[in-house]
Amino acid sequence: MNLKAEYLSRLLIAAVLLTNMLVSFSVVFVGPASILPIQIGDSFLIALLLSQGVWGMVFLLGAEQPLDWGRVSRTAEAFFFFAAVLYLFAYIFAANANMDYIQRFAATSGELDLAADTRAERWVAGKRFLPSILVLFALMHSARAGRGSRTGRGALAGRHTRDGLYLVILSVVLSVLSVPSFVSAKGFGAVAWIMLVPLFVALRRSRPRRMIWFLLLYGVFFTLLGNYWLGTFSLVSLQLVGLIFFLFYLVFAVVIAVVLPRVQIGRWLVLPLAWTVFELARSSGFLGYPWLLIGHTQYRFLPALQFASVGGVWMVSFLVLVVNSLLAEGFIAVTANDDLVGAYRWWGFATAALLSITVLGALLYALPMQNDGSVRVALIQQNSDPRKHEYQETIDALESLTDQALLQNPDIVVWSETAFVPNIRRWSQEDPDRYRLAALVRDFLEYQRATGTWLLTGNDDYRLVLDDEGRETGRLNYNAAVLFDDTGQRRQTYHKMKLVPFTEYFPYEQQLPWVYRMLLDFDVYFWEPGEERTVFEHPKFRFASPVCFEDVFPSRTREFALAGAQVILNISNDYWSLTEVAGTQHFVAGMFRAVELRIPVLRATASGLTGYIDPRGRIIDTRPQYSREYLVTDVALDHRKSLYRAWGDWFPAASVVVLLILIGLRRKNGT
Fold first, then answer.
1. DSSP label at 36?
2. Element (H, E) at 651
């Protein structure tokens, strides 16, 4: 490109950026899309527009300098990424603009400026962000075309750079399709066997800095699109998860950028091994969030699902990743080396791997069960949320459904998480003639006693904090599961141990007081974590009742099984999400515990999915989401043991060892 053309290009780019900035500012400060008064989130939009303006001025002031298309492309990518992320946050929030908890927060705090309804709010989000996104995308594409206009090796590098981002975006799209999402509530699990092929190709073609960038792009966009429903949980959930996963993927990307170029022998194994370890890492500790793991995509493919009994969900993820990696090696052989024979060989390996997974999984599935009797369980799905509905309305629905279920003589009735809200321990000690909540508790206890059946229900609970003289100095509040026997006696209580970070629990009040105050300002309510892993004792069986998202943590649920639980009986409330996607994703993540531990998993939820999964991972029965239903089912007890139950998370540990060996092989060969 000659100097005159570069000069004109600079002027055109500057004009486009400055015009977009001025027009966007006129939109966001005037009319229905106005951000006045300026709030916390608006500062990011202002920063985006000002940055574009500064960039445009750089083009004008440096009009005589040679145009570096590579730098233009990378800068446009960064701005595009920032604008797209901001738009996703704005759109998801706008989709929830008419929810009662958001309206209540806006009315009481004055921190939020909402449009009249969700449609209007989404339109406002589009007017604020879409012009910048379109301008930056066009600039990014044009810059790649300019960079790729060279010949020889430069042309190849330019083409790879030009294609890399599109390959990453393609992997994001395929990943969203493979899991339960806004596209399909069940997901298309078969897509998972190819969903990361484009990303792996882009990584293998790239230099370390581009590897980091591509993995960040993939991780952040897939996290936001896959977990969009978190915007309905609280005002800060999605933002915090987005930030946390940005940091998770940043560390993971740096590791990949360091390790991948250093391995020559068995390079195709590096990404599957490292990703498997990464999944365990992001599922552990205070910030652990084992949602949308690669293995979860195979919840309906029973042969692949069986490998969870050997190496947990981590092994299922690894197998899917291996097939993706082998397929990617074939495409690299064709595009980089024009080696069609080599490509066919890699694709043959991928086909053989998938066939082997299917055959071996079928053999694991065929292993006989070891029956140890059965128990009849009634699961109640009242289709209401205590946060949104009157207590009496919820109690009436629970009792009506329970009365119908009792006609089938269940051994135990199960209500969902916090199905009965008034604190039974507290209000049973108060005068029901003076306090409405005390009257509700009295009526509940009388009803339960009259049923003559064991009942497990979610409820609030507390423990008094006493000083040395026995005086009350405070109360510790818990999210609990409470078991009553067939005579109405309270038998056992379990306090939820793994709380949702930031929105249910924040242990760093002293170290980070400003974060703690901010969370309280955004209407967050905190619980105390439980300390005892309770195994409930029923005359016919022993069971554990992890509360809500506790059942998605493999090692934590395994500890219940090691403590003697014969059944995992999860109680949850996903009503708040207002979408079947969240309920299905939760159901999918929790059902892996059945295969890992070879014990039945049952779920009693406020709105779904309520259901029963047997130790082979078969979904025996469910009830439709957002419907008022009950499910009575006979649960076969199975006393088989699994390798995962005995050894726990051995597979990710073994992956680390193999990865270190591969690095060592490179050093030994001096390559």
1. P
2. helix 650-669
Domains of the chain plus CATH, in order, are 1-147 (no CATH), 152-367+647-671 (no CATH), 371-497+533-639 (3.60.110.10)
Which residues are bridge partners to 544 per DSSP?
A: 568
What is the rounded radius of gyration, in angstroms, for the C-alpha atoms of the chain? Answer: 28
Active site residues: 417, 496, 548
What is the DSSP code (8-state) at residue 547? B
pLDDT in tens, 11-44: 888 888 888 888 888 877 776 667 666 666 678 8
- Token pair 């943590």 in the structure block, residue: 553
Instruction: Tell me which long-range contacts 182-191 makes (C-beta under 8 A, separation of at least 24).
Output: 182/225, 182/228, 182/579, 182/581, 185/580, 185/581, 185/584, 186/300, 186/584, 187/297, 187/584, 189/297, 189/298, 189/299, 189/300, 189/301, 190/301, 191/297
Separation of alpha carbons 57 and 60, rounded Å: 5
Angstrom distances, CA of residue 339 to CA of 153, 270, 343: 18, 22, 6
Strands 610-613 and 601-605: antiparallel
What whole-number distance in Å separates Cα of residue 86 and Cα of residue 47? 11
For residue 440, how many other CB atoms are within 10 A of its CB? Answer: 19
The answer to whether the CB of 259 falls within 8 A of the CB of 274 is yes
Q: What is the pLDDT of residues 252-262, one digit of tens each?
A: 999 999 999 98
Distance CA 223, CA 245 (A): 7
Distance CA 130, CA 33 (A): 13
Q: What are phi and psi of 387, to 5 degrees?
A: -70, -20
Q: Rounded to whole angstroms, how far apart are CA atoms 392 and 648?
A: 44
Distances in Å between the alpha carbon of 440 and those of 24, 340, 449, 451? 55, 73, 14, 17
The whole-angstrom separation of Cα 671 and Cα 659 is: 17
DSSP string, 194-230: TTTHHHHHHHHHS-HHHHHHHHHHHHHHHHHHHTGGG
- Residues recorded for the chain: 671
State the amino acid at position 233 in one-letter form.
F
Which is it for strands 629-638 and 412-414: parallel, antiparallel or unpaired?
Answer: unpaired
Q: Is the pTM of this model over 0.70?
A: yes
Q: How do residues 180-236 score in pLDDT, each as one tens digit?
A: 999 999 999 999 999 999 999 999 999 999 999 999 999 999 999 999 888 877 777
Backbone phi, then psi, for 523, in 5-degree steps? Answer: 65, 30
Q: Could you tell me which residues come within 8 angstroms of residue 139 by beta carbon, excluding any fewer than 6 positions away?
A: 13, 16, 17, 72, 76
- Whether the CA torsion 434, 438, 442, 447 is positive or negative: it is positive
pLDDT tens-digit readout, 141-157: 777 666 554 444 444 44
For residues 568 and 534, the answer to whether their CB atoms sit within 8 Å is no
Q: What is d(CA 479, CA 495) in angstroms, rounded to the nearest whole number?
A: 6
pLDDT digits (tens, 9 = 90+) for 56-102: 888 877 666 677 777 888 888 889 999 999 999 888 878 765 555 45
Which of 553, 551, 542, 537 lies closest to 635, judged by CA? 542
Place of tokens 């955004």: 522
Kindly state the tokens that stand for 67.
Answer: 């145009």
